[in-house]
Each structure stands twice: as C-alpha cells, then as structure tokens.
Amino acid sequence: MAVSASAISAPIVAESQTISDKNTLAGDFDSFLLLLTTQLQNQDPLSPLEPTEFTGQLVQFASVEQQINTNATMEDLLKVQNSSLSATVVGFIGTDIEADGTAVPLQDGVASFTYTLDKNAEANVITMLNSSGDVVLNVPGRTESGRHEFIWDGKDANGAQLPDGSYDINITPKGFGDQSVLSSARIRARVTGVNMESGNTVLDAGSVQIPLDKVITVKEPANLTTTSE
Fold it and tell me: Distance (Å, rounded) from C-alpha 36 to C-alpha 91?
C-alpha cells in the first residue's frame, strides 16, 4: 500500500504558518519604521526621545525574525525526516509484528496473542468480543503466572467460523482469596498497510490499526497452527 501524500501535510501547514509569520513581521516592521519616522519628525527639540528605546525595539524585531528563520529550518528538517520515515515504514508491510494492545485482527481465519499474569490465579477466563461488543467466545485460560500464548481458530462458541476483522480480548483472572491478579496482553498481526494521514504513523493489520510506538517486535511472516487453549 502506498503511503498517502497527506503524510507530509503537517510540514506543509507549518510552512504556510512560517510564510504568514514572515508577512506579518514585514508589515509590523514597516509600521514601526513609519511610527519611528513620525516620532522623530515631531519630537520636542528640547526633550528628544531616548535612542535606546528605538534600539531595543529594533533588537526585538531582529530576534523575532531570527526565530522565524529557525522555524523554517526546522520545517525543512521535518520534511526530510518524514520522507525518510515514509520509506522506512513501508518495509513493515507483509511482516508479522507483536504489539501491546487488546484489539487483535482475525486474518485468514486465525488470530494470535499472548497474555501475562503477574501471579498464579485460581481461575482465568478468556473472552473474545466482536466489533459490536458481543461476546463470541468464552474459554478457560491458563492460571500460572507468566506469559502464555493463545491461537484462535476464529470459531465462535457454537463452532461457526467468524469473518476476518477486529476482535477484542478480555482476560479475566481470579485470584486466590482476596488477592488480585493483574494481566496484560500483546497481539500478533500481519501488517497489510501503513497510514500516516493523521500525522502519526499507524500500521494497518486488516481492520485493526496499531500505533507504531506500540510495536514490540517485527519478524518475517510465519504460518500459525490454528489451535486454541
């Protein structure tokens, strides 16, 4: 998938702002010079205006102009960085990634994720929900502390094959007695596209969008065995 041209929209907006700032500064400077000339023409010869005041204002104008030029230089650097990033992230397409999150894509009838329990649990339930929030599957999960893998064959509680799409993971461990057990999940997915339209880099995995900063690992494509716990 080609990266949208709007990926560079943020620098374009910033560049337009710099041009506007320069035009505004030029207009203000012309007004300042006109005011300075008028004051000099009409000042009291017996009590002339202090030149240091005008000097101070000229220094302020010069400082603002320098800052605008600095911003323009930064925008040029951002353009180069965005172009380089666009070329880099396209390389993610077709790879298998692991990322923090609970929205997992069912791709070609298979979904895979891992979950971690911070301590042993008395019981644990894994719930899969569709995009409408309806429960499609409830199965018992592992209760030992540590990291566990779950590969879902995309079938609901009645054994019917569900369509590819985005499904939410809900891990519900129950601790012994009054103990609470914390859980976290990491999804696995195959990248199908790259989206930079919003100004943030997002990887598309079917109908699931994964922020680039949530990606933990990137690997070559691998075939999964469709088994569930």
Answer: 59
Q: Is residue 123 a part of any domain in this protein? A: yes
Q: How far apart are CA 186 and CA 138, in angstroms?
A: 19
Q: Tell me how far apart the alpha carbons of residues 148 and 115 are, in angstroms, rounded to a whole number.
A: 5
pTM exceeds 0.70, yes or no: no
What's the mean pLDDT in 133-156? 96
d(CA 222, CA 200): 28
Rounded distance, CA 147 to CA 129, Å?
A: 22
Shared domain check, 180 and 212: yes
SS3 (DSSP) at 59: helix
CA distances from 22 to 54, 66, 171 (A): 21, 10, 55
Of 92, 107, 132, the domain-final residue: 92
Q: What is the CATH number of the domain that holds 194?
A: 2.60.40.4070
Contact 228, 109 (CB under 8 A): no
42 and 109 part of one domain? no
Query: Does pLDDT of 13 surpass 50?
Result: no
- Spatial distance between the Cα atoms of 165 and 153, rounded to a whole number of angstroms: 13
Angstrom distance (rounded) from CA 96 to CA 117: 24
Residue type, 166: S
CA angle 35, 40, 46 (to 5 degrees): 140
* Look-up of token digits 């008395």: 122
The secondary structure of 128-171 as a DSSP string is EE-TTS-EEEEEE---SSEEEEEEE-SB-TTSPBPPSEEEEEEE
